[in-house]
Amino acid sequence: MDIGSTIRAIRKRKNITIVQICEETGLSQGFMSQVETNKTSPSISTLNSIAKALKVPLTYLLMQKDERMAIVRKADRKVTTSGGDKLKVEHLSSAKGITMMLVEFPPNSSTGEAPHAHKGEETHLVIQGKILAEQGEDSAVLEEGDSFSWNACTPHKVTNISDGSSIVLISVHTESDENRERDFL
């Protein structure tokens, strides 16, 4: 863990000096310097005092870098195509078994000729257009603002039934990250 660097970065970003932290926590400047350079490991109680002085949750200090907020800028989105109808898939974000994608369905396109199944749970929000969602014996026509979800291990299919493109925000949850983005369509 690199808690010291995290503490130093927060302190500097908030324009707080080591002296101010020491005054609030009762810790010595030498000890704080060793904490920030990762030369000593403070107790949870000491970390809690430092977190309070920095006005951040203790849990934030304990998080690994890959557990913190991840940002994907619109210009940096990975864009792929999927299926025979070449659906445009914009990969928005993913974390711990959850992936979000924007899928653009050209007119009369679908996720495939036949329903398909894969691991996971899916939640959908129709952003634009009109689609037909089919799973087993269930089907529904959904329009802008409508949402639905299903267990993806039951064969399913989504078809754009509007004259223009339909755009659907899809969130997929699986127990593992393996094949999640590849298998949803």
TrEMBL record:
Quote the Gene3D superfamilies the UniProt record gives: Jelly Rolls, lambda repressor-like DNA-binding domains
| Domain HTH cro/C1-type span(s) in chain numbering | 7-61
Q: What's one Pfam family here?
A: Cupin_2
Q: Which UniProt keywords apply?
A: DNA-binding
Enumerate the PANTHER family for this protein: HTH-TYPE TRANSCRIPTIONAL REGULATOR, TRANSCRIPTIONAL REGULATOR
Which SUPFAM superfamilies is this protein grouped with? Answer: lambda repressor-like DNA-binding domains (SSF47413), RmlC-like cupins (SSF51182)
What is this protein's record name?
Helix-turn-helix domain-containing protein
